[in-house]
Amino acid sequence: AQKVTQDQSDIISQVGQSVIFNCQYGIDWFTYYYSIYWYKQLPRGQMTPLIHQNSEHGNAGYGRYSVNFQKAYKSISLTISALQLEDSAKYFCALRELSSKTKEVHSA
């Protein structure tokens, strides 16, 4: 079974600085293709997707969000740079096993 673990509680930082959230995950030995998602939970409870990482791709980046994906260690971290006041929230990682690799089929 898949599981994710986040070891941090509250992180205190300042506007303009960067912050890093860590996530460890576990997968079944036969899981060969998966994605890891980072979400931001707003004060009213809404979950907003921020960025996702596919298991077969290099480190993802989107705007002020970037990840450091270490597949061999089953570890992924989220870095938020140039912090803004609206970044105050809870952050969660989630893992999704993908049933099969996407294959392109070409016909002549």
Automatic annotation (TrEMBL):
It is found in: Cell membrane. One of its GO terms (biological process) is adaptive immune response. Keywords: Adaptive immunity, Cell membrane, Disulfide bond, Immunity, Immunoglobulin domain, Membrane, Receptor, Signal, T cell receptor. One of its GO terms (cellular component) is T cell receptor complex. InterPro entries: Ig-like_dom (IPR007110), Ig-like_dom_sf (IPR036179), Ig-like_fold (IPR013783), Ig_sub (IPR003599), Ig_V-set (IPR013106), TCR_variable_region (IPR051287). Residues 2-106 form the Ig-like domain. Its main location: membrane. It holds the Pfam family V-set. The keyword Cell membrane applies. This is Ig-like domain-containing protein. It comes from Bos indicus x Bos taurus.
